[in-house]
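<instruction>
Derive structure tokens from the sequence
<entry> Chain with its tokenised backbone below:
===
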Amino acid sequence: MTKKRKRKIGLSPGSMVYTGHLDSGEKQILVTRYNANDYKEITLKDFNEDKISPVPGHINWVDVRGLEHTDIIEKIGESYSLHPILLENIVDVEQRPKFEEFENGIFIIIDSLKYITESTTIQNTQIALFFGTDFLLSFQEGKDDHFEHVRERISKAIGRIRKRGTDYLAYALIDSLVDSYYLAMDQIEEQIELLETNIEGSESKFIRERILALKKELIHVRKSVLPLREALSKFSRMESELIEASTSVFIRDVYDHVVYIMDLIESFKDMLSGIYDIYIAQISLKMNNVMKALTIISAIFIPLSFIASVYGMNFEFMPELHNPYGYYGILGVMFCISVAMIIMFKKRGWFD
């Protein structure tokens, strides 16, 4: 994060510097226009002001793929009179999810979360939305389309989206992104359940690494969800001509989903803490078993060492020194003592 921030040191406010690392490839602008009876979609390879300008009587959705294309974003900003600070926030992917109201529209930043199976990590990509009376601008980091299901609903006129305004379109886009949070949390839950199942059979080092890795991913998710909860809280309580009262109900529903995800994060953190406690307890138990074995061995050899030390003294006159069976007799005594002590320890349950 520090290295990414260094790119902006010394620049004036409003300077557009992409701080991410995802490459979207070719420039792509997807323009979608629709109303209750009409639908049209245009794909552009470069900026064209005539093609992206709003058409009266339609909802105009302009979607830009790739935040590294700052030239296109700047031209769209000029075309729709976006504030320079707003444009700076769009390409700065280290922004917290936020909600802001401007004179000509409402600005929202939200992260999309995706679980990467190969690395078992959570990847977040920044999405920026800005909508006014009859237009909505969306800016997606990377080449993946996070709104495929929403486009399908619009093209096939599924549900109420074709009959509603840009506020409902913004809700639909946010809701689809929040759904990705559920998928990521489901994957994390599966990893936690796998840890719980295999905690006794797996290597101690693997268990510890996985617990710490999952805790790190939960912190990563929390950094996206916590500010989003604050942003949606403002969005749901906002009084604006751009937001219909009927849409506020849906926005509050998405807010409830985000609150539930925050509860899941806290629950998963508690579960991981519990698994870590079990891991520490198992390590202590193994150490105790080792110490118990060493103690039993030491206890058996204490009297044997005493006898051996007595008969290892260099005195000339000792009772059994010249006895032809003295050596075998002492070995027999030592063996009997060892057997007797083992039987005594067994009766007392020291081997359990």
